[in-house]
Specification:
Two copies of one chain form a homodimer. Chain A has helices at residues 14-23, 72-88, 109-126, 177-194, 206-213, 219-227, 242-253, 268-276, 281-287, 303-306, and strands spanning 33-35, 42-44, 51-60, 93-104, 129-138, 143-152, 168-172, 234-237, 256-260, 294-298, 312-319, 325-328, 334-336. In chain A, helix 2 packs parallel to helix 3 (109-126), helix 4 crosses helix 5 and helix 4 (177-194) packs across helix 8 (268-276). In chain A, 32% of the residues lie in helices and 23% in strands.
Amino acid sequence: MNTNETQTPISTLGEFGLINHLTEKVTIRNKSTVKGIGDDAAIVKYDADQETLISTDLLLEGIHFDLSYTPLKHLGYKSVVVNLSDIIAMGGKPQQITVSLGISSKFSIEAVDELYQGITLACDTYGVDIIGGDTTGSETGLVISITALGTTTPNSAFCRKGANDNDLVVVTGDLGSAYMGLQLLNREKTVWKANPNIQPDLDGNDYVLERQLKPEARADIIRFLNELEVTPTSMIDISDGLSSEIKHICEASQVGVNLYEDKFPIDPTTVQLAIDFNLNPTTVVLNGGEDYELLFTVSTKDFDKIKGNPHMTVIGHITDKSFGENLILKDGHSIELKAQGWNGIKPEEE
Amino acid sequence: MNTNETQTPISTLGEFGLINHLTEKVTIRNKSTVKGIGDDAAIVKYDADQETLISTDLLLEGIHFDLSYTPLKHLGYKSVVVNLSDIIAMGGKPQQITVSLGISSKFSIEAVDELYQGITLACDTYGVDIIGGDTTGSETGLVISITALGTTTPNSAFCRKGANDNDLVVVTGDLGSAYMGLQLLNREKTVWKANPNIQPDLDGNDYVLERQLKPEARADIIRFLNELEVTPTSMIDISDGLSSEIKHICEASQVGVNLYEDKFPIDPTTVQLAIDFNLNPTTVVLNGGEDYELLFTVSTKDFDKIKGNPHMTVIGHITDKSFGENLILKDGHSIELKAQGWNGIKPEEE
């Protein structure tokens, strides 16, 4: 939070005043938005040849974000993106969001504005309308609840279920950077708390910081796949970590998987940071999460269409369920994949 | 919270375990629900001749509810009903909800189950499907964020805008009871805190307590109006109090209004309680809120159709905007209507 500028207490606006203040600049861009903010409910109307997708996320201060190092504008942006990522991971086109905020009285209007600027920037970037929400006081921390609506043509959504034996496992972009960005921010916070005179050492780490603080949803991939005429057999976005996401696909599709450690796409900065933090980069990729890349499976007949594409990496293949879920290490050994989340990331033994 | 039964820490389940535990009993009843919980986004599909309505509410511990006297099952039920009431107040048929919960570790699984039982009971009562949500830990209080989806035929939604000069102002049920229920609960809590040996004195007040703790949304009214072939020119539900709701209608419709104090429907228990609390019953009706009754306007030509209907009371009429928004007191004096919320309810001078 920028504390150098003039801060106006929210109490000067009142609840209705705050709602008006936040929503007066909201514009409607989608034809499917019949009625937005300003009534008991919003109205959206899709064509007869479309299905509606709905996704929702609840973000709580102290659990999902730390206001001591998260710029509010980035937080607003990310709050929207994580929801749009869910719609996109179903192959859908995001169209509308609702935004509910619980705001403690310690917040100034400028702070709420900064948060909302990030929200509207994400809406501008992804062509999405804000159609409603709820704004209320909070006696505890900041609460952000966003619900996204999107559309697909009927029976064309990419689900967790659908992966078949021999399908290729593909991931977009690179993995693990968002987690290392978080580690870096936490380390500098600890250093700063111990000695407030020390300036944060974040130089040269712009990439991992941006991956953590301002992730993007891969709408571009859905367009690429459409242009390439590749139809994924299953898809999910990577919010909790590669390991738990591929396990969701295997469970829903009733299949097994082999992932190959040496294929994992990791940015060099991320590898170096993991080493600096005494962490195994593979463990960071498997359990770090928050990359908001897409994980999907395609039939082997589509391999030629995606081969060499800089946005996509084949990291393994689907097997019969009886073979289980495995990680093939660089040395050729096979170990069972486990979804451990952040608990699974521990410093290596010296 | 019932503290007599065995309590199991949520930590025994883990996050995914808790989600599975909460959602395994969720059933799908609406044909429009293509895919519910278990993927990145839910899929709903409505007919080409329908519009989709969306409403969302965020409920925070300490702001919207007090767990010291709110049974969790009732809280779950009410959390759903307040959202459905918004869909119904647009003339829509509620169809699906998403449920996001932020739960502190002090909660037991039994407590979360009780909350969820109330949520599913409301879904059973109103024929609504739970299609997704988000469950997360909370470092502060309980957070409940619910989004409801519903349908109407195109261009038939009842909005705040639409009231015309001379239209009648109609309210359903009676008003002020939910607020007096809350006053009663707060008083007994204060007494109990001062002396825990004194039993709460809630006898004879079942009606106001139920209105506060377990309100219902008036889906029946939408059916009645349909059967009577009455099309309201505007409609809103009463969540914040009659005064602010009628002002929303006047502002959106660019009209004025005269409300008549002697027409306000108030339950005798509520009148007596208000007097006991040294409050003016009219002020309670105007500013109390949380009744979740419907407030709407109809053309005078529809008067004969609703006249004498026990569920509906004509409490005033719409005027030209230039006449303003007025309350005609029992003694014939006219005063300006103000939306004061709970701040407007003060004990009377002795």
